[in-house]
Amino acid sequence: MLLRTTSQKIIGLLVGSILLFLCFVASIIYGYTDTSLGLALDAFRNFDGSNEHIIVQSVRLPRAVIAAIVGASLAVSGLWMQALTKNPLASPGIFGINAGASFFVVVAVSFFSVTSLQTYTWLAFLGASVAAFAVYFIGSIGREGLTPMKLTLAGAAFAAMFSSLTQGLLVVNETALDQVLFWLAGSVQGRKLDVVTAVGPYIAVAFIASLFIGKKMNLLAMGDDVATSLGVKTGLVKLVAAVVIILLAGGSVAIAGPIVFIGIVIPHVARYFVGTDHRWLAPYCTILGAILLLVADIGARYVIMPQEVPVGVMTAIIGTPFFIYIARRGFHGK
Question: Membrane spanning segments where (predicted)?
Answer without folding.
Answer: 12-32, 61-81, 93-114, 120-139, 151-173, 193-214, 281-303, 309-327
